[in-house]
Each structure stands twice: as structure tokens, then as C-alpha cells.
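Quality-control log, excerpt.
Job 1 of 2 completed; input and output follow.
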Amino acid sequence: MILPETISLEAALELALSSAPCLNSDRVPLHDSPGRILAEDIYADSDLPPFNKSAVDGFAYRMLAGTGHAPSLRVIGTIPAGSVPALQVGPGECARIMTGAMIPPGADAVIMVEDTEDAGEGMIRFLKGKTSSNICYQGEDIRKGTVILKRGICIESPHVAVLASVGATHPRVSCQPMIAVLSTGDELVDPGEKLPNAMIRDSNRPQLIAQLNRMKLPATDLGIARDAKEELSSAILTGLSSHEVVLITGGISMGIFDYVPEALDHLNATVLFRSIAIQPGRPTLFARIGDRFVFGLPGNPVSSFVLFELLVKPFLYKLMGHSYSPSRTKLPMGTDYARKKAARKSVLPVSVRQGEIFPVEYHGSAHIHAYTSAAGMICIDPGVTHLKKGELYDVRWL
């Protein structure tokens, strides 16, 4: 295997995204759509609002031209929401109207209930000099035939409301990739086992599965593969047989028991990169086997967590037709910070207090506990050894 040189995170991300095919799509019930990627444009099948409607509980009346002044008015009827008015409002008249009800013919404004008083004998009196129209006008939100949701969005609660408002009860969404997660290493035991000497509990699989579940993606747990070429090749092949993507942690560095690259070579995989100039996470691999993909992530939990967020997550979203953009906020450093090694881009966990960034105590790529108190992370460019108080950095929220 001819190994590619170490590349930048930006180059690695571009290679991964440009390799991602678009998955097929299917229709799902509206209540199953949150978290899915919309695979079609959605058009309005009517104006929204579909008619002039009252924005408040009050009295619909004909406003005196140019003044907004409302005299005492005779109440000629009541208009509940959901009914077509059977009356017409003339000068000096009004109709009691509920929020959301259709404005009756002849009326061009609604007086709020709290701005009136009962004047007796079927009359009300307006207590103010002027009122706004208090009308939601037909089509002021959306016009019939316009695109109201574009394909590629990740459906959230407000999108569900919009889909419901136009009758899109079974939106077309991208199919979700089937993903398998595999840990490697003779030193690993499952989280529920007692720890023999020189062994550690595997935290990477639960962590990666949790990250996938947060994306609302199902994951298959392939367990732990020992540091043996045959066992590792068999586990990867099992994953690839029924999954579009296999995530592997460990076994990809330069140690004599790091067999993942050899196993992929045996499977005739095309390795697009095997080393990224980032700290933590340099030994990160991405390979393609036909229409299937393998990510080899470092064995240390911080590295696997960070590289999933920076690289794997955007790739998985791209498979589903979504251009992922993480939530970021530019904030000032709250203190000076220095780092000794600056050859690679560095990812640093941070807390945010009173609008300022503070590095979390962090001991390296095995110290995943640091991220439990981090609000986000910042990227420090290669060559930068000192961050000064007040300098602005993009906080990528976790």
C-alpha cells in the first residue's frame, strides 16, 4: 500500500465530501420526519393565511377613512373561528370576532376586546383614539405556488408545522445510511466487564453510537476485534456486507499491531488519506470499497470524538443530501493561552463564561472527561503558539 502524505483537515474534508454519493429517498409519515433530510422542494398549495383573518379577539368594524377612530358601535353578530361570516358590517356597526376567524365583508379593522367597554343596548364603546387593523391578510406569509421548504434541510419542529400547514403529510426524505461501529485492540473489554490487569474499558463504541443517535441515525454495534489480521478483516467485511459506512477506532497508527490498513489492503480498499495534520487525531483514515466507506478513527476517545464531529458527521449528512454547518459563535478569549506544539491545527475544549472563552483543563487525547465540562471547542491554526485575551475565535458548540 502506498500511503498518502499527511494532509490538512480542510483537504481531508473535501476528499470525504466529494466521495459521498447521494442516497435514495423515501416518504415517511410527518411525525417520523424530524431529524430527517428533506429530499424534495415543498410548495405552498394555498395562500397563507388562506383568507383575511383576525389577529385578536375583538370587534370587526369599518374604520373611518384616514383616522383610525372608532365611535360607539352596534354589535350585529358573532363570528367564531372556522365559520364563513353570514353578515356584512356597515357604517356604525361591528361584529364580535374570535382570533383566527374570517373578517366579514365591510370590515377593515378589528378593535381588541380590552380596548372597549359595554355601552348598553347592544352597543360597545371604543376607549382609544386609534387602533391598528389587527388583521392577518391573505397571502402575507406565503403565496400559493412558492417554494416554502427547500430540499436538503434537516427537518426540525418549525419545519414540521410548515409541512402540516400545506398538507405534506408524507414528505420525501433521504434514506439513512446504515452504519456499523467497530473497536479494535487486545487491551479492550466491554464497559460492563471487570478490569483485568493492563486492560481498559472500551468507551469509543458507546461514544460513537451516542453521536450517531444524536443525529437520529441507527448504528450497529460490531463489538471488539482483536489485534489479529484475520479477525479484523472478517469483522470489517461483515460490516461492509450490510452497511454503507463502517467506523473503526484504533489499529490505524504505525504500531506493529495496527492492522487496519493491512486489512483494508487485503479487501482491495482505496485509501484516500491516512494522516491528518490535526491535534488530536492525526492517525485518521478514510477508505472506499466500491460504494461502501470506512473511517479509521484514532483509539483515544477525544480523538475519535473530535474527528467524528469534524469529519464523519459532515460526510454522513452529505450522503443524505444535507450541507452540514455546525453552530458557531465568534467570542473573545477571556484569558491568555499558550501551547508548546504548534505544527498542526489544534482543537481545544473550552467553556464560555459571561461571553468569553476559557480553555478547559485538558491533559491530552485520552482525557475525554474534559469534554464533559466543555461548552464547545475552538480550532487553533498551525504556527499559533499564543492566544491573547480579547482575541476573537469561533466557538463550535457541542
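Job 2 of 2 completed; input and output follow.
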Amino acid sequence: MSYNAVPLNIIDNGHSVQINYPAGGTLTVGNKIYTLKQFHFHHPAEEEIEGKKFDLVAHLVHSNVEGHLVVIAILFKKGAANPLFDTLWKNIPAEKEKAVEVNSVTVNAKDLVPAETGYYTFQGSLTAPPCSEGVTWYVLKTHGTLSAQQLDAFAKLYPHNARPLQPINGREIFESK
């Protein structure tokens, strides 16, 4: 993961708060490079680890030149505040479905990423319509934190914008070392 700071481009798209990420981040998997397109949030988290539930998840959506999607899921529990959430929440546009560029504010997706980046990976689908298949998922093992106030601020907008946990349906889940 290699992410740089970019001017904040934020939208309340009607089902989440989304940060559009102009050329400023890449993910390299093997010899393939994926560009970070956007990240958004779900409350509660749409993923569990060994039956443990989480309060929020950030989905970092990447695409390569062939259009293949890779999503990194970063889970969050209530705890210490994360300054990035304060920056994002205070800049959510009042008008839904209208992206706003806040040139005076920069954000960096790496501020969401925990120091430990071990993961689980599997093939799945997008979690919002059209729920297209063929998405490679990386769910980080280590979670981040956000304060109760930061979680409450998001939950006021989206008290439950998560897809229910999906059955494994025979899909293989691999774990990094």
C-alpha cells in the first residue's frame, strides 16, 4: 500500500460517506498495480473476524487497468479517536449526492491503515448494488479505533448502512502470515 495526501473530495452519496481519491494511491499485489479510486464506510462493519463484530469498516476500493477491483477492508472499534475521522465528518457536504472538493484540506488514506497489515483474502462481490462478483477482498487482521463521538457522528447519518454478513458458500479464505 502506497498512499499520498490528496485534496479532500467528499460526497454523501445517499448510502455512505465516500472520499474520492484522485491519483494519489496504489496497491501492488504481485506484479499488478491497483489505483485507489475511493474509500467509504459502513456501520456496523460488514465483516467479522472469528465471530468478532466491529463498529465500523472502511472499504478502500482499488482498480487496475483491466478494471479488476480489489477492496481492502479496515475494521474499527470504539476506542481512541482517529483525527482523520474528525476531518472527514466536519466536511461532509450538506447536500447529498454532490461531491465537494475542499482544497484547503488534505487527507491520506494511510491514516486509516494500522501498523500491522496481516490479512485474510478471498474472492467476493461488491457489498452495494449491483453486488458484482469478481472482487478480490483483503480484510486486515488488525483493527483501528475511533472515538464513541466519532462513531455516533457517522451513525446519526447512517445508523445501519451495512450489508448483512454473507455465508461463505464454499469460498476459500486465505490468511497471510
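Post-run check on job 2. The chain has one domain: 2-175.
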